[in-house]
Write a structure and sequence with these properties.
about 210 residues; alpha/beta; Beta-carbonic Anhydrase, Chain A; 5 strands; about 15% strand
Length: about 210
């Protein structure tokens, strides 16, 4: 396997080159960028270094508010993701909240294995809970690679449900046309796959238990 050894000093050279390239196209690029942000999308993705949010969506800086963690989780007890969500929905007033997983996710793979991974255990337990909920469906898949990919998809689905359980998303769904989306990025092809999460149907299905005024 080819290993890239990074020269940190090169980063600053790259930065200078990037600045020149941007200014060559638009001399006001950085002035406009510094005026503020009004993104339409909150993107919650994986911290995997191969999955870059803006690049895979083909968008520019300022068009998406981004949060990343191991295996794109939306945990009710993770203040990091919850504060990002609250700020994006209530202050930035995004209209789309996206959970984007990816095939080849190390966090999902680790959760499928019976190993003690120390401090990672509580985090991976959330993914194992997804496996437990969908155990019957997953265990019917004989091919381990296909079972792995299916868990990636089911994890995205469950994180979308976790989003819909939150007060800020429920309140925004009443005041404006906010949508929750579940996507998977296939690194092998570069394709972004829409899992077609039915926001309205899920919202109706969970309101009896998770409804918040």
């Amino acid at each position: 396997m080819w290993v890239f050894k990074m020269d940190i000093k090169q980063i600053f050279k790259n930065n200078e080159k990037w600045i020149k390239e941007k200014l060559a196209v638009d001399e006001n690029y950085f002035k406009d960028l510094s005026k503020g942000q009004s993104p339409e999308i909150l993107y919650i993705g994986c911290s995997d270094s191969r999955v870059t949010a803006e690049e895979l969506m083909g968008i520019k800086p300022g068009e998406a508010f981004v949060h990343r963690n191991i295996a794109n989780m939306v945990s009710s007890v993770d203040l990091n993701v919850q504060t990002v969500l609250n700020y994006a929905v209530n202050q930035l007033e995004v209209n789309h909240v996206v959970v984007c997983g990816h095939y080849g996710c190390g966090g999902i793979k680790a959760a499928m294995e019976s190993k003690d991974l120390g401090i990672l255990n509580p985090w991976l337990r959330n993914i194992r809970d997804v496996y437990r909920i969908h155990k019957a469906e997953l265990n019917e898949i004989e091919c381990e690679e296909e079972r792995y990919k299916k868990l990636v998809e089911l994890n995205v689905q469950e994180q979308c449900i976790n989003l819909i359980k939150t007060a800020c998303v429920q309140q925004a769904s009443k005041s404006r046309d906010i949508k929750v989306h579940g996507w998977v990025f296939d690194m092998g092809t570069g394709k972004l796959i829409d899992l077609q999460i039915n926001f309205e149907e899920i919202l109706k299905g969970i309101m009896e238990i998770y409804h918040l005024d």
